[in-house]
Amino acid sequence: MKEKGVWGEFVAELVGTFVLILFGDGVVANVGLAPRLAAPGYDWNTIALGWGLAVAVAVYVAGGITGAHINPAVTLAAAVKRGFAWSKVLVYWVAQVIGAFLGALGVYIVYYDGLKAAGMPNVWCTGWGSVFGKAFWGSAQGAAAVGHYSLWNATAAEIIGTAMLIWGIYALIDTKNVPVGANLWPFLIGFVVVAIGLSLGGPSGYAINPARDFGPRVFGALVGTKGLFTGWYWLVAPIIGPLVGGVLGAYTYDWFITPFLPAEES
């Protein structure tokens, strides 16, 4: 591919991931800071729906250029099982991390007063220090707190959740499966993310995307959020877990689904 084409793909992945984090971390900040309603007015359902819509909008924005990977796990899975050029994997990953970092900056600008008043809580990423620490992985109080999950449990949730993300994506874009018409597949991929959040997101906070977690985590550390790089959680669960899960999802879809689909009509 020409250099201009690769540059266009880089920009598309950057912008798509920016949109993803702007809306995704934005809903976390909105729920955590509850600026319009009392805290009980928002809940986990709000977060799951907000993240799903964030994915849908991001895919609509960048999908016509790259298919909107907006996720290193999706890019790796595509290289392993869908013929995506290995030479472009790192290009996409860098674009995705930069886009996620800039998306966190956007959330910082929008919610600055609330974040400052609250002591710059973690609305950026999963794990220790999150504003919802008791709802998913770990807590400030340690293992005795309600809702505590071990690092390995959180990592297993990330692997399985990301594998299901890949299954959902591959099924929705597979013309031999149940085809999605009227350009609705980005919207339905968003609902796959809603399903993962509602059903599988509890133990880890469902990063299911290394760039989604790492870019905002770096930004959060730079603006003063504490504890974002404590221990090994930041590397194992939201980075290694989704990369493993993405490859697992690609292989298992082709093991258990692809061979039994009907042949495409000529």
Oligomer: single chain
Query: What fraction of the residues are assigned to beta strands by DSSP?
Result: under 5%
Task: Report the top-level CATH class.
Answer: Mainly Alpha
Instruction: Specify the helix fraction band.
Output: 55-70%
CATH architecture: Up-down Bundle
Ranges where pLDDT stays below 50 over 5 or more residues in a row are: 134-146
Distance between the termini: 29 Å
Q: Total helix count?
A: 9
Walk me through the topology:
Layout lengths: L2 H31 L10 H23 L5 H10 L7 H22 L1 H6 L33 H23 L11 H16 L9 H13 L10 H24 L10
A few lines on this structure:
With about 270 residues, this protein is mostly helical.
Please explain how this structure is put together.
The chain is globular, with a radius of gyration of 18 Å. The chain has helices at about 5-35, 45-65, 70-80, 90-110, 110-115, 150-175, 185-200, 210-220, 235-255. The chain is built from 9 helices and no strands.
Question: What are the salient characteristics of this protein?
Answer:
0% strand, 63% helix, 266 residues, Glycerol uptake facilitator protein, globular
